[in-house]
Amino acid sequence: MNIGSKNKKRVVLPSRPDPPTVDQILEDINRAAPNDPVFSILEQTGQDSSRASDLDVELKFQQCCRFLELNEQLQEARGRLLRQREELKAAGEQLDRDVAEVKGQPL
């Protein structure tokens, strides 16, 4: 039997503080010194460069534009293929009628 466990009192922890507001976070970032460790970590990982971020945004934008262009081309191609399918179906039906007509004629 463990005697020490009977004498332990339960510790009540204080409640958690409210999370900071966006304004508080922005104020904290703006007050941070340039040599703040967070900024040095970002430099080491290559995430500090706002220019790289701008290039990444531009690349994503160009990719989105290209995707929309390709999607429009695919929709147009789909429409053309549907029309061609109907034309082929009609041509096949006409061919079947012509073959049936030829078969019915005496030689």
From TrEMBL:
Coiled coil: 67-105
Extent of Basic residues compositional bias: 1-11
InterPro entries per UniProt: UPF0449
Lineage of producing organism: Eukaryota, Metazoa, Chordata, Craniata, Vertebrata
Organism: Lates calcarifer (Barramundi)
Name of the protein in its database record: Si:ch73-238c9.1
Location of the region described as Disordered in the Swiss-Prot/TrEMBL record: 1-21
Keywords: Coiled coil
Similarity comment: Belongs to the UPF0449 family.
Protein origin, superkingdom: Eukaryota
